[in-house]
Amino acid sequence: MLNVLLVCAIALALAWFIAKEFYAIAVEKGHSNRKYFWWCFWLGFVGWAMVIALPDRNGGAGIGSKGGFDNLPTI
After folding, report:
1. How crowded is residue 23: how many other Cβ atoms within 10 Å of its Cβ?
2. How far is CA 19 from CA 13, 39, 45, 69, 70, in A?
3. Could you read off the pLDDT of 2-16 as tens digits, one per residue?
4. Which helix (H) or strand (E) holds 25?
């Protein structure tokens, strides 16, 4: 019984830290609503996929905003 409780506690702690990271990603994308944390915490993969699919509201800090693949160094 103690092993089951220990495994559940570890699973909840892991879910908490992973959801916290995905919430930080959502905030970086310009979505600061706490619902993204709870979606990731309670639904796992579904919430993660939702955060990954969020559009970037910050004007695009990714590869497309700096010229894309045209500015890559030559090898």
Report:
1. 23
2. 10, 8, 10, 32, 35
3. 899 999 999 999 999
4. helix 2-28
